[in-house]
UniProtKB/TrEMBL annotation:
Signal peptide interval: none
The protein, known as: Fructose-1,6-bisphosphatase class 1
A Pfam family matched in the record: FBPase_C
List of residues binding substrate: D122, G123, S124, S125, N215, Y242, Y260, L261, Y262, K272
Domain Fructose-1-6-bisphosphatase class 1 C-terminal: 206-326
NCBIfam families: PRK09293.1-1
Gene that specifies this protein: fbp
Amino acids binding Mg(2+) 1: E99, D119, L121
Species in which this protein is naturally found: Fibrella rubiginis
Cofactors named for this entry: Mg(2+)
């Protein structure tokens, strides 16, 4: 066997991909690249902890509630600490908002140009039962002067002002899916190398699909047109799939085609999902992959941000399915 066959290339690492594309990044001075590397590093550590959670004392409740009034899982808290630390030490982020913290976290890097909104662990109800979970992040270039303390204004710029967004899916394999506004790429984590390797250079969502994802237990609360839409899905013998982790449900539908719905419910009349660190980043990725995302009245990216932990209904997925849903007056 030719020796060359014994030394096949391992593929393009995330680092090399970022460097190669740095010219395509706005403001390409390397800070955003470093920031993405810091996110990737933290996710590798968390991936290791998720895989070994049962062997470490990090399963179960942390015994505290977050600003949403939800019980925090130990891994929610651990992941939060790890991402904040990595972004602080990396030096490229001046402030962070997180699902797990009420207020803006100032990193002390006052000369840094970026702010990050993060859901450190998405799908918390699945943490202890070995079902896929994720991390979601959204990156903005600050609007306050470099050298000053970041403010609310840096985070309430609006969905179309995101310069990058992504998620990490800790599933049967761990992947990082990323957009900087030039399409969507996926990187698979090779644990033996400790590297994210480009595995899906250009992810495109099929314009239609056979999968609908929603919490069937809440259907009675959904607006009538949504109930009608779901009935049609069932009449057409579409497949109901719901993992209960937004990242995992979104990713499956991104690959196979489908629609994820989290409408307003009696428990969450504004919807459950958080605009800044769940809806906006997933909507940016969806649109960059040819899909759509709306709140029932408008594009998610057009929803005006008014507060850090604001919630929104979310309908996201294949373009034809969202258009069909939008064809029915969702808030009839
Ligand atoms: O249990 P429900 O009401 O169906 O909600 C599930 C949804 O809530 C979430 O778990 C909310 O995210 P967090 O786990 O980050 O709080 C989504 O991942 C998921 O799609
Ligand atoms: Mg979440
Ligand atoms: Mg979370």
């Amino acid at each position: 066997m030719a020796l060359a066959n014994l030394a096949l290339p391992v593929g393009i690492t995330l680092d090399r991909y970022i460097m190669q594309r740095q010219t395509a990044f706005p403001y390409a001075t390397g800070e955003l690249s470093q920031l993405l590397r810091d996110m990737a590093l933290a996710s590798k550590i968390i991936n290791r902890e998720i895989n070994r959670a049962g062997l470490m004392d990090i399963t179960g409740s942390a015994g505290s509630d977050n600003v949403q009034g939800e019980t925090q899982q130990k891994l929610d808290v651990v992941a939060n600490i790890r991402f904040i630390r990595a972004l602080k030490n990396g030096g490229e982020v001046c402030a962070i908002i997180s699902e797990e913290d009420e207020d803006i976290i100032h990193t002390g890097n006052v000369n840094a140009k970026y702010v990050v909104a993060i859901d450190p662990l998405d799908g918390s109800s699945n943490i202890d039962v070995n079902v896929s979970i994720g991390t979601i992040f959204s990156i903005y270039r600050r609007v306050t002067p470099v050298g000053s303390k970041a403010t609310l204004a840096d985070f309430l710029q609006g969905g179309d002002q995101q310069v990058a967004a992504g998620y990490i899916l800790y599933g049967s394999s761990t992947i990082l899916v990323l957009t900087t506004g030039e399409g969507v790429s996926g990187f698979t984590y090779d644990t033996s190398l400790g590297e994210y390797i480009l595995s899906q250079p250009s992810l495109k969502q099929p314009p239609t699909g056979q999968i609908f994802s929603c919490n069937d237990g809440n259907v009675a609360d959904y607006p009538a047109p949504v109930q009608t839409y779901l009935q049609r899905c069932k009449q057409q013998r579409m497949t109901g799939r719901y993992i209960g982790s937004l990242v995992a449900d979104f990713h499956r539908n991104l690959i196979k085609g489908g629609i994820y719905l989290y409408p307003p419910t009696a428990r969450s009349p504004q919807g459950k999902l958080r605009l800044l660190y769940e809806c906006y980043p997933m909507a940016f990725i969806a649109e960059q992959a040819g899909g759509r995302a709306c709140d029932g009245e408008q594009r998610i990216l057009d929803v005006a941000p008014t507060s850090l932990h604001q919630r929104s209904p979310l309908f996201i997925g294949s373009s034809n399915m969202i258009d069909q849903l939008n064809g029915m007056s969702l808030n009839g």
